[in-house]
Inverse folding.
């Protein structure tokens, strides 16, 4: 195994911030910071609509603040076809809705709550994602 | 302070965390998923850092009667591992592995002002709606 591009300190600090965001959302609003749920409910439910919209807008403002106050150069790169983008987006939307959560709701909050469903879900999506990357590597 | 303001603040901190950690970049996430190749373990520390905050928080707040800004805690009601959970998580993982974007970073990446993110987020929202309509 070859380790590349490892950025432990910034990863850890970023992780603490994500955890702190989930803490605020739970202790103040009593809700789980699961992004697939927050985003999908903007389109599928009237409950907490304004809260969900503001949380989502906040997620977009965060990177802008980082660019303005911390570092203007944010690494970002997607190299893929539009077809793959659409298929992947559909799978992520459909799958997270069916499975009741994504990396944040199951991974960060659910595991933190020691929920068996979230622990299983996280292991499963990590596994299928790793396999997908492995198969992609074989094909290309 | 009300729940709306708290939601906005929590969202901003979440977006900052995704940017600081590098998770806003799908290439970095793919580097983590590439365990059998050139591997970037950073995502483990992102989840570790987040869990270091959430795990004690959920444990210590177990006996709290209500949140600070509203009347009740809303926690998931499902407790059993069922086939929908497994199938949903499997499908999500395949989509995640194809591009390296999951819902949080996908939204955050809209701040990078590129059409790829917009197409992905649009398709993801379509995926939510299709699942709801099919009531699968």
């Amino acid at each position: 195994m070859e380790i590349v591009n490892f950025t432990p300190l910034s990863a850890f600090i970023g992780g603490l911030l994500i955890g702190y965001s989930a803490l605020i959302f739970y202790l103040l609003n009593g809700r789980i910071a699961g992004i697939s749920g927050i985003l999908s409910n903007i389109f599928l439910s009237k409950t907490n609509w304004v809260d969900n919209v503001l949380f989502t807008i906040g997620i977009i403002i965060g990177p802008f603040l980082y660019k303005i106050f911390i570092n203007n150069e944010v690494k970002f790169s997607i190299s893929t076809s539009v077809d793959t983008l659409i298929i992947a987006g559909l799978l992520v939307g459909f799958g997270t809705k069916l499975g009741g959560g994504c990396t944040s709701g199951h991974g960060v909050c659910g595991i933190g709550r020691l929920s068996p469903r979230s622990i299983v879900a996280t292991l499963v999506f990590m596994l299928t994602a790793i396999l997908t990357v492995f198969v992609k590597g074989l094909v290309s | 302070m009300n729940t709306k303001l708290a939601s906005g603040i929590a969202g901003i901190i979440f977006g900052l965390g995704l940017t600081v950690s590098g998770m806003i970049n799908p290439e970095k996430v793919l580097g983590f998923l590439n365990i059998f190749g050139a591997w970037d373990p950073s995502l483990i520390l992102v989840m570790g850092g987040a869990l270091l905050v959430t795990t004690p928080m959920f444990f210590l707040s177990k006996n709290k009667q209500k949140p600070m800004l509203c009347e009740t805690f809303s926690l998931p009601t499902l407790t059993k591992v069922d086939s929908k959970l497994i199938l949903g998580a499997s499908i999500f993982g395949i989509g995640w592995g194809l591009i390296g974007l999951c819902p949080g970073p996908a939204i955050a990446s809209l701040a990078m002002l590129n059409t790829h993110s917009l197409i992905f987020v649009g398709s993801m929202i379509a995926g939510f709606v299709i699942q709801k309509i099919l009531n699968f």
User: Anything to note?
Assistant: Strands of chain A lie at 2-3. The radius of gyration of chain A is 17 Å. Chain A touches chain B through 113 residues (CB under 8 Å). Chain A has a mean pLDDT of 97.
